[in-house]
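Hey,

The postdoc asked me to send both predictions to you directly instead of through the lab channel. I've kept everything plain text so nothing gets mangled by the mail client. Protein one:
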Amino acid sequence: MLQISNAVSLADWEIEIHAIRAQGAGGQNVNKVSSAVHLRFDIRRSSLPAFYKERLLALSDQRISKDGVIVIKAQSHRTQDKNRDDALERLRELILSAVRTDKARRPTKPSRAARQRRMDSKTKRAQTKSLRGRVV
């Protein structure tokens, strides 16, 4: 079972995990051992709340197919268990990032004193540069 938050969790039957051979340069074991993990998660069939499903389907992430299936491939570790844990953690982070709401930005403007300091520094810099000119 994958715990997403205090109230939301995913059952094992909702997540398909298959072991595959890792890509990349060959080594002693790379062509013989299936250490990479391929994770598939169907958003529409899952037991996630409707709000989570809507937000996930609205994401423009290349890991989410048009059918609403999340596909994650983990092959950075040497062992299958670590790759499996990595894939599950990446799925958890993807779901959490979809439902996270950012704080609204309130537009601000610089104070009058800050604008004055900026103009003074520009004037001082211009005077310094003008002194570098040719002496007549």
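Protein two:
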Amino acid sequence: MQNLQQVVDFLKGNNLILATAESCTAGLMASLVADISGSGAVMECGYVVYAVRAKREMLSVSLETIDRFGLTSEEVAREMALGALQRCGAGVTLANTGLAEAEGPMDGVVCFACAMIIGGEQRVLSETCKFDGERNAVREQAARHALLALDRYVNDLRNPAMTQG
């Protein structure tokens, strides 16, 4: 997809309702969708979960996962996406966690996950990307990346060979 209108149109065309679970982008994905006219028909809710406690209490991210893989990992993003999926009426969830500003190689690294229930089975996929720029530029790029990749994520989730667990 090339723009946010296409994201809303994709959701409408596929009868999907979106929920977001955002750490790094702090609600920016939900806000970008809400900027598009007609988005109320395709947006369920958005979770903003910066703190470990919020991730655990609101989305059931396990402390073991956080301790083992780190707060900004694909594993945590996957649990965030699944937690949102289990808690609301959305048909698809997008989650992210990462470091919009950090010293060293983790600067600009953001982990994404997308989850759906297909045929009664929870499916989730994830990826990690690195973005360049200042803090808010990284957040903007990350939010747009996830939303514009939604069609790819959904198509991959619908293909069981593409999902991991």
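Summary for protein two, as requested: The chain has a mean pLDDT of 95.

Thanks,
C.
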